[in-house]
Amino acid sequence: MERLFFMRVYTFILLIIFSFPMYSEDVPYYLDEDWESLSPNWTDGVITSIVADNSGNLYCGGSFTTINGVSIKRVARWNGTQWQTMGGGFDNGAVEKMAITTVGTIYAVGSFTRSGMTQLNRVAKWNGSSWTAVGSGFNDVVYTVTVRSDGVVFVGGKFTQSGSTAINRIAYWNGSQWVEPYSGVSGGLSPYVLSLTSDSAGNIYVGGQFQYAGAFSASNIAKWDGTQWSSLGSGTNGPVYSLAVDETGKLYVGGNFTRAGGVDVNNIAIWNGSSWSSLMGGANGIIFSIVPQTAQSVFIGGNFSYVGGGVSSNGLAWWYSNNWRSVTSGVSGSNKEIRGLILDTQGNLCVCGDFYMAGGNISYKVARLKRPPVFTLVYTAGIGGRISGNLIQSVMRGNNGTEVIAVPDSGYQFDRWSDGLLSANRVDINVTENKNIVAYFIVLSEGYFEGEGSMEGVSEGSVEGISEGEGFVEGIMEGIPEGVEEGTIEGEGSVEGIPEGVEEGIIEGEGIMEGVLEGNYEGTIEGEGNIEGEMNFRAWIEGDTYIHKVVGETHTFSVSVEGSYGEVFYEWYYCKDFLCLNPLRITNVIGQELSLEDLSIEDSGWYWCQVSDYRDVVETQKVYLYVSYGLSVGIVPFVCIVLVVSFVFTLQRNKMFSKCDKCSY
Length: 665
Prior knowledge:
six-stranded mixed beta sheet
């Protein structure tokens, strides 16, 4: 009975928790429309490799003979507008991999043996106009090539000779011939090298299908430090197809394996220099390419359909901040397979493989995913304060800015930000637009502390009350005081919507002013006299002046009117900033209620209504509507969970005690 009770409680807690939406608002994101088609016309074969130079040119190699409808032999260049041939290409055999040096020299390896009349033997170098041989080449297919930071070229594959020299599946070019790193790799039924990469120290990591590196036991992966071989723990239990080192020195290993160093993994793992670790469920297919962007951002490509146990991926996925994320809808086609990935100099992700659509756009075998746009956040301090933090921030779409704090000078206090936020500390999250945000400060005055009220809607240039300490104009930006009702927002007893003047005497209760003449303010504020016999026309929006809603909810603004003469007319307005020179008029509403349904983030901003009768025109106070995605499990839901669980616990306990009253001990 007790076990059943706790099972019910735990189930109830889980149901409550998962009934609240989960949101992540601090991660940049890609959209399907960010894809750029590089081949909207037919491309045959498979594109297996892609590299980029510093001028923005892309170079592709594979088994194709047509790219974007242009006849090209297995290697091509994209100059930004069209595909071009690279010399005579390769007449027989495919390109498996390409590499480019820091000075733009391109190397291609594969199963080809010639370009036109030039004998190449599976490795070639591009001199800008034609392909040239690199030494004697090799006697069997070369699968991979990499260039170390010092310019030394390493290749790996299935070969066993270069010319008449025996070389076991890995070699480097010393400037005149190919040299084998001590005995190469061997072992297993059919040993070969599939992937190579290097780190900042010049170490070469070798992946593929083999059991020995030199004299050392090394299961499918090993390290060459320039002098000797070493293993990476107990290696992997399947072939390694891709390797990449990030800026911190971590080695990402991808391929077709389920264990690395005794750790359960799915086709991808991390080697930190001493031990292996998994990446949260890995991928459900082979990983052919890995490209680190930063220490927290890594892209992978392959023939998988999901990562992390359930994140839909379709050949392309993103390991970001220790979590898997989809990258748009990925690629599609009969194989939907990505074989190569690179980041160009602009941060765009270029992909190649065997597919015909990328993000829903037709792009045969090659496409480019443009880097998410970067937005600028500019924070400015108004009179009476300064801002602590980074005043100009560049933030990628969907990412967060860094914290800034509005700090008042002596004699001032922080009032609000121009977009309505009332906290002096702020971090802009999930940034999707450029923002210019001003921090407003107000003068500390005797009247303010004594709660005597705020001057609202003071006419232009009338700052006498401020200097005398009898009140203050709030939210002034560069001498434009009109329209800011701090007293209204704070609920300190301000007169709302009274046109062209501030009636301090009314607030103080010194007399009711009926029929105030326009422009005669001073006597009114000082309470020196009132004109009697007529009610003031005033209007206000009911409820709070700061409204917080969640995406998808509904909110209705409602105007109340007093002292009108004849028929009343309503015009609703909206603006992102409090001080707005060009507000948006909401034309589809003509009554005293404004209903907003299915709210979105873009609906956040200031709302007010201009109300008129046969004699006058007034404006209500401005009300700020803030629409957010909500929280994963905030404090309110948490409190609700605790209360509900406590209630269930009490009921169950009473029920058990009631039954036990009938029990004998």
